[in-house]
Amino acid sequence: MRISSATFYNSSLPAMQANQSSIARLNEQVATGQRILAPKDDPLDTKQAMELSNRVAVREQQLANQEKAELSLKMEATVLNTIHTTLTKARSLVVSSVASQDDTLQAQHGDRMAAYYTQLKDLINTRDSNGAYLFAGERVATRPFEHTQVYPDTSGTASVSTNYLGTPYGNLADPAGGREITVSQDRAIQVSDNLDPVLRSGSVGGVPGNSDNDLLRIMDQFAIDIRDTSMTATQKQFSIKYTIDALTNALDSLTTIESRVAATQAELEDITSTTEGLQLLEKNALSDLTLVDKTAAIVEMQSRQTALQAAQQAYAQTSKLSLFSYM
Amino acid sequence: MGLGLFGIGVSGLNAAQAGIRTTEHNISNVNTSGYRRQEVQYTASSSQFTSGSLFGGGVSVDNVRNLYSQFLDNEVMLDQTRLSRQEAYSQMSSRVDGVLGDSRSALGGAINGFFDAAEEVANDPTSSPARKVLLAAAQTLADRTQNMSSTLGQMREDTNKQLSAIANSVNGYSSQIASLNLSINRIEASGSLRANDLRDQRSQLVTDLNKLVNVTPVEQDNGDFSVFIGGAQALVNGNRSYQMTTMPDSNDSRLDVPALLLGNTAQALTPDMISGGELSGLLAQREEVLMPALDGINRIAVAIGNEVNRVQRAGLDSSMAPGTDLFSSVVQQTSGNSWIDLEMTSGSLPNHNYSVSFDGAQYTIARTPPAGAAIPPVAAGNEVFDATGSSMGFRITAGSPTPAAGHTWQLNFENYADDMTVQLSQAGQIAAAASDADGPGNNVNAQALAGLRLSGKLDDGSTSFSGAYTQLVGSTAALASEADLSRTAYEALVKQATEAQQSISGVNLDEEAVNLIRFQQAYQAAARAISIANGLFDEVIGLAR
User: Fold this and answer.
1) Residue from the list A7, A140, A181 with its beta carbon closest to the beta carbon of B499
2) In 3-state terms, what secondary structure has residue B363?
3) Which of A51, A76, A138, A320 to mutate to test the interface with B (most CBs of B within 10 A)?
4) pTM of the model
5) Start-to-end Cα distance in chain B
6) pLDDT grade, residue A138 (50/70/90)?
7) What is the C-alpha separation between A103 and B514, in angstroms, rounded?
8) In sequence order, what are the residues at sequence separation of 6 or more whose Cβ sits closer than 8 angstroms to the Cβ of residue B321?
9) ipTM over 0.90
10) Does the distance separating the beta carbons of A140 and B440 come in below 8 Å?
11) What is the SS3 assignment for A92?
12) SS (H, E, C) B109-168
């Protein structure tokens, strides 16, 4: 077949160009580590990779939320545990009190109860690192429990009631009264509790006609009563029993909250390990989709280089062929 | 008879000279694009009856013709105009693909960043740093949206400029073709002469013009080329050419369309009249890739702005005051204190602003400023359709407080992505608390805001914001990759067709070398014949002495 000189001499050019652009592309793939340099390189895989990286990002945030929830629960659990210890010690003190003990011992018991009272009041008004009150419901900026201590005035003046300034029990989305953090697509967990049941709502059984079960008031009153010299032994005995019952009920309510927190912590741990597992799977799938196989890329680069050299050789040889060279 | 001997020899010399000249011409033009190799056509001169026999009278140069196949030339033109279309299409769609897919500017990361920050506010509604991060993330999202929209908008402007540049080039080619028509006519009118080189030039111009826009050349009886565009509109007629220009599209003033100037009026060329060449690639790309991307980004931005603002308005900020729009308003109250909500369907959202008024039963929607046919009123919850019955991409539902008769609103869809800004200046203005919150520790509204990330707010509730973006990137990538594939296919077709065409019309230097030797030998032989004839005369004269 007849062939024009331009076609003859230029026939190696497309091969050279194709190989050069392949080498440039492989170069970029190896340098960036990415198999897909623009979405059009692989529209389907790009779409899948975008969906996967969205999911990875969502899980990343879920893990951050879980960590935050875990921190909140850990802090609450620690505070609750300390409250538990304080109340237990207060109850032991009351149990060890005897109506007829001598004045020095009664004064000691009064002071010790006042110390537990102060400890408890500090604990229930704990603030987190942002300065938000832990047990104020949504009114995080308001000191929730206000109570004016009457002790050491033991002249018989009755203690006053606690003033609760936080979100009232039952007024929150969660009846137990606490904030929720979203830890997975369809699970939000409660990370704070309302201490009202512990401090005010615990019913004191076996005490007919007395509906006053205000823990701070009762503890303050016990300290007053035990040192009150005007009270009879029977009256003091009644006060001791009354305080023991109130502390026992408070500890029962507290245990309920503590076990909720512990159960939530266990659930959270489980959710976190699931999320981490899923995220790992998705990250691996994403890498498989988007990362270049460097070994394969370098092998291909070498074969392209060989092909380019061959095309260049062919051009060099072809361009020498001209009849005019022999004339 | 004696004169006859010399005459035959001289005709041989002339013929060989003509051959050498043509060969030299071919060699010189080996790299001239559009040049078709030429060859001399010889005819044996008419015989003379002498001494009872017929003797030949030598050779005469009949004509110089160029070698080509009209069929192969047409094949090259056709494949080339398709290739040019694909080249323009693939180049522009690769740019759109690059803009949408670039991880440094992509929307996906900014959308996730915004909702991550919203979750942090939900985790800690009273944390001022978390709120500031959310405002900053909102700013990033608005910036990215603006940036992407304006980059694509710039490409729309570039396309307009490119169309105008193509129109100028087309005008250059058509006026050159018209003037070549005139020159060729003058040369060829004199008789049997054929203006080979001018014809080659003219064919090359038509080929080049065809790369810009597919044209149909028709050779008239007088040798003129008439060039038609879109089958019927004459671009060149004899020595007259018509001007191409651009004018704004009657449906969308942001877009220019090519037009022909007929007298003083510009007549728009419809897309179906332009099926090949760079011009058609640009127009098709704009319609299928660029504008859907631009409108798609706008639609996602409107959906995000609408939902985020709706949630924000439903809550209380850190000072327990009702929230206000976080992003530029999508729905704006113009009369009354009630709200309407928008739900995105799967239709594409028009890039216009609308006014909405409620009469107690139905919503009346009208373009602002007024334009186009009236949109039929709809009841709450029904998809809005325009006068021609095509979906406008959204439905209206009653918001809170519930709309009453006489209330009106404005819908700001037009270039929303371009103008998207953050309206809040204080971190405290973020409405993290629910409207029934008891204190700043309430995070219910922030959770609702964070929850927007995974809930479907487009395509009738089936597609999330990032899902819509992924779809947009995916469909653009599919078009761009398809365009690359068919460009490669047409490159191969053009290469084959050009090689076939060149096998007939192209110069082969070895062949020309052989021709040179051939004509040199013919010249030497003819010269020798003259010298022998001369010797014969000498003999005769010698006898007479």
Assistant:
1) A7
2) strand
3) A138
4) 0.87
5) 21
6) confident
7) 139
8) none
9) no
10) yes
11) helix
12) HHHHHHHHHHHHHHHCCCCHHHHHHHHHHHHHHHHHHHHHHHHHHHHHHHHHHHHHHHHH
Q: Coil, strand or helix: which one is B486?
A: helix
The alpha-carbon gap from A135 to the nearest alpha carbon of chain B, in Å, equals: 11
Nearest CB partner across the interface for B30, out of A5, A64, A323? A5
| Cis peptide leading into residue A152 (ω within 30°) | yes
Q: Which residue has the tokens 């003797």?
A: B55
Q: Is A104 exposed, middle or buried (0-12, 13-18, 19+ CB in 10 A)?
A: exposed
With an 8 Å Cβ cutoff, are B517 and A46 in contact? no
Q: What is the pLDDT of residues B451-474, one digit of tens each?
A: 999 988 999 999 999 999 999 999
Establish how many alpha carbons lie within 13 A of residue B513's alpha carbon, considering only the half-sphere containing its beta carbon.
Answer: 11
Residue with tokens 């035990």: A226
What is the distance between the alpha carbons of residues B480 and B477, in angstroms, rounded to a whole number? Answer: 5
Residues from chain B that touch A171, judged by Cβ atoms under 8 A, are 438
Residue type, B17: Q
Q: Which helix (H) or strand (E) holds A160?
A: none
A contact residues 115-154, partner B, Cβ 8 Å cutoff: 130, 132, 136-142
Query: Over A269-320, what HEC string results?
Result: HHHHHHHHHHHHHHHHHHHHHHECCHHHHHHHHHHHHHHHHHHHHHHHHHHC
d(CA B210, CA B206) in angstroms, rounded, equals 6
The CA-based angle A315-A320-A323, given to 5 degrees, is 135
- Quick one: tokens of B98? 């690059």
